[in-house]
Amino acid sequence: MLLVTQTQGLFSERTPLGSIPTLTIVLIALVVILDQRKRRGVTPKGKAPQEIRRVFNWYLLGTIILIAGVFALAVTSSLWVSIPVSFVACLGGLTWFGIAYERAADRVRVRLA
Are 91 and 7 in contact (CB under 8 A)? Predict the structure, then answer.
C-alpha cells in the first residue's frame, strides 16, 4: 500500500501519465497472485477448511496491524526510512503467510487422505 501511494505521489505531479507506475505495481501483484493460484493449486474455492481458515484469520490480524504500523511510519518518518522498513515488514508477513499456508494445506491433505 505504501509503495503504491508513494509511487503515485512521486509521479503524479511530474507527468500526465503519473498513474502508470501505480497501475504497473497493481498489475504485477495480480499476475503474481494468479500465478501462485495456478502453480500451487491449493487455493480453496468456497469455504476453506478449518486449518486454512485459521491461517487466513491470523494473516488478516497481522495485515491490519502492519497497515497501521506502515501508515504511522509513513506519516512520522522520511521516505528513506519508511519504504525499506515497510518493504521488509511486508515481505516478512508474506513469507510467514506462504509458510503457514503450505503447512496448513499439508495438514488438510493428510487429514483428507
Answer: no
CB 89 within 8 A of CB 70: yes
Contacts 24+ apart (CB under 8 A), 46-49: 49/104, 49/108, 49/111
Q: Under a CB-based contact definition with an 8 Å cutoff, are residues 107 and 51 in contact?
A: yes
What's the whole-model pTM score?
0.62
Helix axes 50-76, 2-12, angle to 10 degrees: 40
Q: What is the pLDDT of residues 14-59, one digit of tens each?
A: 555 556 666 677 777 778 777 777 776 656 667 888 998 899 899 9
Place of cell 468456497: 46
> What are residue 13's phi and psi, to 5 degrees?
-90, -15
Distance from C-alpha of 89 to C-alpha of 1, rounded to nearest angstrom: 12
